[in-house]
Write a structure and sequence with these properties.
Helix content: 10-25%
Oligomer: single chain
Strand order of the largest sheet: 3-4-2-1-14-13
Order of helices and strands: EHEHEEEEEHEHHEEEEEE
Structural class: alpha+beta
Shape: globular
Number of helices: 5
Distance between the termini: 6 Å
Mean pLDDT: 97
Low-confidence stretches: none
Number of strands: 14
Length: about 260
DNA sequence: ATGGCCAGCATCGCTGGA
């Protein structure tokens, strides 16, 4: 089975690209971030025509997450991060065939000296606690989405320029390691990858053409799933389209 | 040169993203 994650930066704008991508790639689950849609406007019918069931948690203008799946029998649907009274729609989780799928849109943080950075760190701490709890109930966990963290300098096109900047700062990288310490592996790093593989490129300054990118979208799998993991890759094709999202989708493949 | 682009909302300029 295949699970994918894509920050679409407005599902309204990107819907045709998402539908095309689903038809072409046929993931079992596609997790979306930054849908930027209130639930009453979610394009469930168009997505159903492509053969996918959708659950979603959105709001006006900002944030918003969704899980699209071929399987329409998910259970334990959840859209809140316990311990955090957060009006921002940044998490959606559901269980598909004994696999716990947790889709997240981690706050950006803006700058390391901003209040949004403190909110980001608080959010990550609550997420780690949530994973510790989820681990007690599920052995097969996939935590995927836009983490807004480049875990290492090899995930950054220009490490000196980004040193201790938001997305690359040590506290953020430590928070990422704390997530892994709950019993998760970065599936991307289980395989040899082409150097300079990223998931986000700035719209400005011809960021994509110059491959000025960061790897900030991730698929983390519980250790029990590692032997079944057969691949993880980033598909940069959608980033080359007209009116692209600034993120590319990432996919993990599992032998069940 | 610390900007540049993009989406949304509400208009013709701002916020937020990363």
């Amino acid at each position: 089975m295949k699970l994918s994650s894509w920050n679409v930066n407005s599902l309204k704008v990107r819907l045709p690209q998402v539908i095309d991508w689903l038809r072409l790639n046929q993931p079992d689950v596609l997790c979306l971030q930054e849908t930027k849609l209130q639930d009453e406007y979610f394009p469930a019918d168009e997505i159903a025509e492509a053969g996918y069931h959708a659950i979603f948690s959105g709001q006006k203008t900002y944030n918003g997450v969704a899980l699209l799946s071929k399987d329409n029998t998910c259970t334990d649907f959840c859209t809140v991060l316990p311990g955090l009274d957060d009006p921002q729609k940044r998490i959606i989780a559901a269980t598909y065939n004994d696999i716990r799928v947790i889709c997240v849109y981690v706050p950006n943080g803006e700058r390391v000296d901003s209040d949004k950075y403190l909110y980001k760190m608080k959010w990550l701490k609550a997420l780690t606690s949530f994973l510790q709890e989820e681990r007690k109930h599920h052995s097969n966990i996939v935590l995927l989405g836009d983490f807004n963290i480049a875990p290492a300098d090899s995930d950054v096109y220009d490490p000196p320029a980004w040193e201790e900047k938001v997305l690359c700062s040590m506290p953020e990288r430590e928070a990422f390691q704390q997530l892994l310490a709950t019993g998760l592996s970065d599936s991307f790093r289980l395989f040899t990858q082409p150097p300079g593989t990223y998931t986000w490129w700035d719209y400005r300054m011809m960021g994509f053409r110059r491959n000025h990118g960061l790897r900030i979208d991730h698929i983390l799998i519980s250790t029990a799933m590692v032997p079944a993991c057969t691949g993880c890759w980033v598909d940069i094709a959608p980033r080359k389209l007209e009116r692209p999202s600034d993120h590319a989708p990432i996919t993990v493949e599992l032998s069940f």
